[in-house]
Amino acid sequence: MDASDELDRTLRASGHRVTRPRRAVWRALRRGRGHRTVEEIAASVAAAGDEVDTASLYRTLALFEDLGIARVSRLGDRDAGRWELAHPDEHFHLVCQQCGDVDHHVGTLVAQIREHLDRGHGFAVEQVELVVTGRCTACQHTVAS
After folding, report:
1. Which residue, of 6, 65, 90, 138, is most buried by count of CB atoms within 10 Å of its CB?
2. Which pLDDT does position 145 carry in this prediction?
3. Is 96 annotated among the ligand-binding residues?
4. How far apart are CA 135 and CA 100, in angstroms?
């Protein structure tokens, strides 16, 4: 099953129409690297020759988030949000303060934090999203040079 079929099935199963703009946004999300801004997604849609107005783009991304097929992360105080395809793992977002690159770090610490909060504090954790800021390897080398 290809990605468009998966989107079509998900939309129809939830009572939503399959539209050209929704497919265009879905293709842009699938084509790009994760953690993309709305502006980057819009540019990708336009580069593919599709037209989606800004309001439709925001509504489509919100719908995809509601359906659990995309997710938004707020990775800093000034960051309006970065979008990526949904995935089941919880992870750290490593955000480079110099170049803005974002990377995932998956490990056991997130599970340990979740368990600590669940058992140690009686807090029913729904999602863990941790943001760690610093400088990526490339930017560290740039400063050192």
Report:
1. 90
2. 53
3. yes
4. 9
